[in-house]
Amino acid sequence: MTPLVDVVLVLLIILMVSSTYIVAQSLKVQLPKTHSTDGTAEKPATVVLMKNGGMRWNDKDATEEELKAGLAEIMKADAETNLVVSADKEVSHGRVVHVLDLAKLAGVTKFAINVQAE
User: Fold this and answer.
1) CB of 92 within 8 A of CB of 54?
2) pTM of the model
3) Residues forming a β-bridge with 60
4) DSSP code for 118
């Protein structure tokens, strides 16, 4: 009985690890391409805007209210936090500007828009 429980637990762990990878791969965001980049940010918080209207805050699905609360919380913890906004190339410019405005209202002074190098 004990070896069976051990095998089941190992299979469960393998399933949990692989499902995280599968979910990450299924959330495709096609970043706009650019010829120049400023490099990567240190200690970034991330917002991902998907073309289906969804939003992710630090790799978790979020609403606008959750984003506001998360931004306020992270700025209280560290005022030097960088925010990286990744938006699918199909997302409207106004939606990206709205998220940047929410970040500024929360006190974020260092932010970047994620792009994909050509």
Assistant:
1) no
2) 0.63
3) 57
4) -
